[in-house]
Amino acid sequence: MIQPNSLSLPRVAWFDEHGVGAARARLGDWRAEIARRGALAFQPRPTEARGPALARLLSELKTPYELWSAGRAERRDPVISAPQDISHPVMLLPGFGTHPARMKGLRTALEGAGHRVADWGLGFNFGPSADRFARLCERVVTMARREGQPLVLVGWSLGGLFAREIAHRHPDAVAMVITMGSPFSGDRRANNAWRAYQLITGHTVDAPPVGDRAFGAKPPVPTIALWSPRDGIVSPRSSCGWPGERDRALALRCTHLGFAGHPAVARTLITLIGTLDQDNR
């Protein structure tokens, strides 16, 4: 005859008293956090801050066709590789909500030009945290030491803000910063992504947990801002900046999403990185 397990009743009672209570507490915490982030997402936009118009935002949907069309033209007139003795270490930093794989086209072009290219090594970019940013800084410093020369940081959108902040903190490890559609100038809500950013990261654009030297004064290294009048996510003025916030600003005709792989962007990056060699002659 099988005897009932007398130990089962206390275990069930313990789960009822502690397990369910803990689960309810966690559920309450989740609800409170969701409500807090929802409030961040629906903050009113300052009256003086304006992102690109709705029509411009919707034009971002044409990016796949734009890249396909530009790719066809590129196959007829490919990016010309630089001499193999001109080589720099380059790190690509993805935009908000994207993976480094989205920048594969740029990586291929830069490697074809003889450069040593790495991605940021942190997977998807869902915004900064003190821990992840410290790991990124460590990766930049370690790579620069291993390569024997400072890196060129190429940052798309939010990735460009990371690049600027790193260059302020570790200028000896950075040879150049190139931002692509990065909102480093003016009001931090002059774009169509700030609400999604606040919802996902849980903090406001005014108080990033990694500091705010990415905004305003330029890093103490050559800093070039690529911007587009066709950008549907970030205000062109915000990504272009003013003198004193960057060394040069170059306009390209692509969508915001197109910065990650447009052949014209690749050509421009190769040319800009080549200026490092001219400056050292």
Task: Identify the notable features of this structure and list them briefly.
globular, about 280 residues, six-stranded parallel β-sheet, 6 strands, alpha/beta
What features would you describe in this structure?
The protein has helices spanning 8-41, 54-58, 63-76, 104-112, 130-147, 158-169, 194-201, 236-240, 263-279, and strands spanning 89-93, 116-119, 151-156, 174-180, 223-227, 248-251. Residues 4-9 have low confidence and may be disordered. Helices cover 43% and strands 11% of the residues. The protein is of the alpha/beta class and 281 residues long. Helix 1 packs antiparallel against helix 7 (194-201) and helix 4 (104-112) crosses helix 9. Helix 8 links the parallel strand 5 and strand 6.
Order of H and E elements: HHHEHEHEHEHEHEH
Summarize model confidence as the mean pLDDT: 88
The strand count comes to 6
Count every helix, treating DSSP H or I runs of 4 or more residues as helices. Answer: 9
* Spatial arrangement of strands, main beta sheet: 2-1-3-4-5-6
Largest sheet: 6 strands, parallel
Terminal Cα separation, in Å? 93 Å
Low-confidence stretches: 4-9
SSE-based structural type: alpha/beta
